[in-house]
Amino acid sequence: MAKVYPQIIPTSPDQTQCLTSKRETYTLWLKSLVFHSNGCTVYDSNGDIVYRVDNYDRKGRREVNLMDLRGKVLCTIKKRLLALGCWEGHRCMSSDFGTQEQPWFQVKRCNQMIKGKVACQISVGCQKYSLVRISGKTEAFKIVTWMDK
């Protein structure tokens, strides 16, 4: 089981109530809490639900929703350009007029013949990163800015 240790730095005084720099262990359970849905649930070390990930589209499986413990959709990840391997992330904002999606990030898989060690390229707003394979290790990667390559 993989462990994730977040390093959180609050950007405003309001965030200090919810965020901590204390090391936390998360458990990913590959079961959906929704009947007849594909997804998983993320628990913290106290056994409390932190996030839910569900796919309600059984046919295409081209869209996944990341939700908080109450089931509110926080972001949607959509698979685009199947042959090229492209995913887009959208932040979901609730309002009186329904839920609106705002573009957040994009991930493109790179062809190994063309890019070599670069596994994929990531764009978050105007910031651009690459996921690069570490030499000698088949499953090890590092994130670098496009200028660092």
TrEMBL record:
Superkingdom classification of source: Eukaryota
Pfam family of the protein (one): LOR
InterPro entries named among the record's database cross-references: LOR (IPR007612), LOR_sf (IPR038595), Tubby-like_C (IPR025659)
Family according to the record: Belongs to the LOR family.
PANTHER family referenced in this protein's UniProt entry, alphabetically: PROTEIN LURP-ONE-RELATED 4, PTHR31087
Protein name: Tubby C-terminal domain-containing protein
Gene designation: LOC100777685
